[in-house]
Amino acid sequence: MLVFNRFVVSPESGDGVEAFVGRAHAALEALAARPGYVRGELTRSLDEPASWCLVTEWANVGAYRRALGAFEVKMTATPLLAESLYEPVAYETLASAPPGGPVEPRTSDRVV
User: Fold this and answer.
1) Pairing mode, if any, of strands 95-96 and 90-91?
2) Which residues contact 56 (CB under 8 A, 6 or more apart)?
3) 0.85 exceeded by the pTM?
4) Contacts of 21 (CB under 8 A, 6+ apart)
5) C-alpha–C-alpha distance, residues 53 and 7, integer Å
6) Residues 4-35, buried b or exposed e (16+ Cβ, 10 A)?
7) Do 38 and 58 form a contact (C-beta atoms < 8 A)?
8) What is the 3-state secondary structure (H, E, C) of the chain?
9) Rg from Cα positions in the chain
10) For residue 58, which of 34, 22, 79 has the smallest C-alpha distance?
11) I need a surface site. Which of 15, 16, 39, 99 has the fewest CB within 10 A?
12) Residues forming beta bridges with residue 79, ordered by sequence position
């Protein structure tokens, strides 16, 4: 599953871009230490430099939810994530395609 936390961080913001990046690195490190973490990236928009995104990939929704309950995550990542834009953040992968390969559909884990 993928998690997209988007932020708006302008140079005029309270603690500045440099402080935001430091807090995002700490959050990413705390999340990366949790079981089920696959990968993560801190990204910034090329078109709107104030738009940032912390993207993480997890083995499954359970691993992500358990990670949020870990002490280190609560201390470093949760305060940062609380500053993200209020919008849906967690997405399940329903299809993927390797480079040059066919689309591989996946079954939803969601209970309908």
Assistant:
1) unpaired
2) 2, 3, 28, 31, 37, 38, 39, 40, 64
3) yes
4) 42
5) 6
6) bbbbebeeeeeeebeebeebbebbbebbeebe
7) yes
8) CEEEEEEECCCCCCCHHHHHHHHHHHHHHHHHCCCCEEEEEEEECCCCCCEEEEEEEECCHHHHHHHHCCHHHHHHHHHHHCCCCCCCCEECCCEECCCCCCCEECCCCCCC
9) 15
10) 34
11) 99
12) none
Note down pLDDT in tens along the chain; length 112 residues. Answer: 999 999 999 877 667 899 999 999 999 999 999 999 999 999 999 999 999 999 999 999 999 999 999 999 999 999 999 999 999 999 999 999 999 999 999 998 876 6
Length of the chain: 112
Dig out the tokens for 89 from the structure: 């953040």
